[in-house]
Amino acid sequence: MEHTITKAELRKRLRAARKAHVLAQPDIVRGLLFHRPPAPLMASIPAGAVIGLYHASEFEAPASGYARIFAERGHPLALPRFTGANTAMQFCAFTDPFAETDLEEGPFGIMQPAGEPGELVPDIVFAPLIGFTASGTRLGQGGGHYDRWLTEHPGTRTVGLAWDVQLVEPDSALPTEPHDVALDCIVTPTRMYGNL
């Protein structure tokens, strides 16, 4: 009987593949990837839309280039913020994507808006991920923070940012649960899956 892989096993495998992939890239190449959103994605984002991004950890697809581009175009920006390890994720104003002077380390070791920033509800959320399928299924860290937030904010458009090595094929190889929220599209350095 064939072994069905669990989410935990898949996360371990994909984290290792992602780390190896990122470490194999020269710094100069890594700096150019995810520098700006693809033109079709930019064209689908209305002027003034609130953009929810994330502050990437070491091996996640970086979102800082996107933050600077959206700020230059006048979009309000927001990043996830946690007031404690057992609190719900909220998005709060991110006002300095160039020097990041308005950030502090949060309870999960991730940089987040400092002090008491204003809460924002993004129109579009860019989400980090561990793995994804071509049809938009997202495998996150396992805390369910994005799934819960998106369930509470139906209609929010969602974009995943990932390295190509994070693609899980076939779709059925990524186990899903009823609470998992699919992404509208995923952007990798080589292509876009889905539509915003």
Write up this protein.
With 196 residues, this protein is an alpha/beta fold. It has one domain (7-194): 3-Layer(aba) Sandwich (Rossmann fold). 23% of the residues lie in helices and 18% in strands. It has five helices and eleven strands; from the N terminus they run αααβαβββββββαβββ. The chain has helices at 7-23, 27-32, 39-43, 64-72, 145-152; strands at 51-52, 77-81, 90-93, 103-105, 111-113, 124-127, 131-132, 138-139, 157-161, 185-187, 192-194. Strands 3-2-1-6-9-10-11 form a seven-stranded mixed beta sheet. A two-stranded antiparallel ribbon has the order 4-5. The chain has a two-stranded antiparallel sheet with strand order 7-8. α4 (64-72) links the parallel β1 (51-52) and β2 (77-81). It is globular. The mean pLDDT is 92.
Morphology call: globular
Strand order of the largest sheet: 3-2-1-6-9-10-11
The CATH topology assignment is Rossmann fold
According to CATH, the homologous superfamily is NagB/RpiA/CoA transferase-like
Tally of DSSP helical segments: 5
- Gyration radius, in Å: 16 Å
- Count of β-strands: 11
Q: Please trace the helix and strand order, writing H or E for each element.
A: HHHEHEEEEEEEHEEE
The assigned CATH architecture is 3-Layer(aba) Sandwich
Distance between the termini: 40 Å
What average pLDDT do the residues reach?
A: 92
Runs in which pLDDT lies below 50 for 5 or more consecutive residues are none
Just give the CATH class. Answer: Alpha Beta
Q: How many separate structural domains? A: 1
Biggest sheet, open or closed, and with what strands and sense?
A: 7 strands, mixed
Helix fraction, binned, reads 10-25%
SSE class? alpha/beta
Percent in strands: 15-25%
